[in-house]
Target: Kinesin-like protein
Amino acid sequence: MESPDSVRVAVNIRPLISAELLHGCTDCITVLPGEPQVQIESHAFTYDYVYGGAGSPSFAIYDDCVAPLIDALFHGYNATVLAYGQTGSGKTYTMGTNYTGEGSNGGIIPKVMDSIFRRVETMKHSTEFLMRVSFIEIFKEEVFDLLDSHQASLSKVEGASLPKPTGPGRPPIQIREAGNGGITLSGVTEAEVRTKEEMASNLARGSLSRATGSTNMNSQSSRSHAIFTISMEQKKIASCLSGVNDDTADDILCAKLHLVDLAGSERAKRTGANGMRFKEGLLALGNVISALGDEKKRKEGGHVPYRDSKLTRLLQDSLGGNSKTVMIACVSPADTNAEETLNTLKYANRARNIQNKAVVNRDPMASQLQAMRSQIEQLQAELLFYRGDGNASFDELQILKHKVSLLEASNGELRQELQERRLTSEQLAQRALDAQVEKDKLVTKIELVRNGKSWDEIDFNQNQDFDLMKTYLLKIQELEGELIRVKSLSSSKCKRISDCIDEDEDEDETSKDLLFSSGNDYSSSDEIEDNEKELEHSTLQEKLDLELMELDKRLEQKEAEMKRFTSSDTSVLRQHYEKKVIELELEKKALQKEIDQLRQNLANISSPSDVGAQKLREEYLHKLNVLESQVAELKKKQDAQAQLLRQKQRSDEAAKRLQEEIQRIKSEKVQLQQKIKQESEQFRLWKASREKEVHQLKKEGRRNEYEMHKLLAQNQRQKMVLQRKTEEAAMDTKRLKELLESRKASSREASSAGNGNGPGVQAILQTVEHELEVTVRVHEVRSEYEHQVEERAKMAREVSRLKEESEILKHSELRDYHETMSAEARNSRIFALENMLAATSSTLVAMASQLSEAEERERTFSGRGRWNHVRSLGDARHIMNHLFNLASSSRCSLRDKEVHCREKDAEMKDLNEKVVVLSGLTRQLAAEKAALTREVKLKVGFISYWC
Model:
């Protein structure tokens, strides 16, 4: 089980960046879900934390790893956060050492500053704080103060060998060891800070002075190791120590927090760095981690090479010393960086075995004062004993001290009770405030009563407010329920969408498989589209014909009705009816006149008793009745004639409307006929263009067939080359592994024979040959690895280009866009390239694993270990002679190869000149051929004209 003070290790896996995606890189790291375990090829590692990929999110690094260190800092423990990894893996971004004050990038250092000063703000009434910061960098094995305003800044370094100058008259920074074993820096600037802004300003000022440079892996690469240190001293305030033992009054806690951003840990050739940058490697740190992480060496008390580098010297407390340390290993998931990633993971795995011994750091003077105070108390107790009557014993003094402590404890309880009473007082004050509010409400009610309102109205208003509040609460509950329902519906829809996406991906895979089964002619989907178009045209034609027939039927019906209306002479009939009505009106007037005359005569008969008059009266009455009946009959006839006249008017209006409808139907018929004609013309044009397009597609189909055969041959050729290269790489890695195993076995044999006279000369020479063979094999595997990376990058660029062309053609509205390749051929090529990329990725990861193991064994076997079997000066002379013979033989062979290459270059130059001459002759013959062809055509035309 790990000690609580062991180094905690976190792995941060950044996502693939755009440049890596452009080169077709894929993930080579697998994270076990729910477990801090990382696997790359056949290597598996377990750490304390894993972020990125399938692990925890990267923003949780601070809360999980760094926040406990801040707590330890306030308790007096030293702490260190160490970012380790290759260039471009995100170390500076994770640490936040590129902070410029223009906004936080989410790094650790800005969060540390914010957390420290928030905590200081909460403790300022009980504790005094003194904080200082320093910012240094180690560049080319020199320590530079980034907060020294007199030093010239060097923000860009292009591999020059000029060192950073120091300030005028300022002594260089020196590393010293304190009396307690701690490491300190002499001559470095420690700026006192009181606010977060001051600390951020110092960080930003130092960040601008860091040494950076452009490499193959990062345009703004940190080419130095940077250490930002926060020193904190804290002391309890005297006014807050009443009732507390005075021994703690002068207790001062001193602690430091180191935030370390290291330079890249990769090979120099990988980044393209040159010159003095080779000194920036982390070999010394790797040796220290290896020595501290080896449990056997640690138990035996083996030497730890802290003094091999200034970096390891400064980190002596952080690695195996008085500090709580967290190491953040930043790695890239790209398969092209698999070798560097594997090396970083191995170092991080070793770092987990490092055991630190963190203790609370107190001010030495305060500790000495506390010891003196204890001694004074003891002497005072003894003095009281001897000055007394001699009856009081030392135990009684201890009892008195115990009573004092009890009184102090009672005092503490009383203080606690006082605090509770204060809380009770605050609660009572709150209740008084509520009572005051209630009183104000009552005063308001009284004012309303004085203004003439009744208590019922006031209660009604309050009830209205209460009802309104209840309504709001119900509305809030409804909205919350609706929100829950919408969230559940959204989650179900998201699930359905993800299922649809999976189905679409399956369909994409199926369509990708069907690409190879497509024929040379235009696809079946185009035929279906043509058939649908023709069916649509025929259906529309039938529909228009039916509409035209319906219009014809309606027109015939309307015309028949019109004929019925116009079969008789309406004008003559109308005149007849009007004449008849007039005649009846005249006859009616005549009869009415006669009736009036008879009534007048009847009134003139004066003597009712006269028989003659009576008879005449009766005649008049009879005649009057007859005339009235005639008038009534004439009135009926007149009404009938008027009714007939009105009916005739209505029929005339209906005939007019019918005529208008007939005209409208005729107009619709003409429009429908024009539409049928237009539709037929459009269909004819579409049919012609479609036939032309089909002919063009057939022509392109033959071209696509040729392209498909050509691409299949190219894919097969590339596949065979890739397979051959893969087999060769596998053989090289296998041979390299066998050589490394045999070298390990030979080294064990040499060490077991160390007590004898040592191996013979022949065995030593064989060992030298074996070492050279290992070096050559490593070089071959690395060259093949780099060649595979370049080839994979070319294939990835081709895939990207083909996909861009496909997208352009998909969204392009230009119909005359010249396609360099058909869609089927393009998709087939993309599919083949993606398969080859996947195969290349697995090969690269396997080769990177073998190269990492080779470098690790080379590092452990290099130096003295390689020559342990050399026991005498004679053996060394034999080795030197043998190496000289090999070097001279290689030099002579190289000379012969150079001569041979020059000869071949001369031959190639002669061949190129001949090619240029032949190209000129070919162009001349082509021009002559064209001229003769024109002449023949003219003669043939002339002969055909006269014949």
About this structure: The chain has a mean pLDDT of 73. The chain has 19 helices and 16 strands.
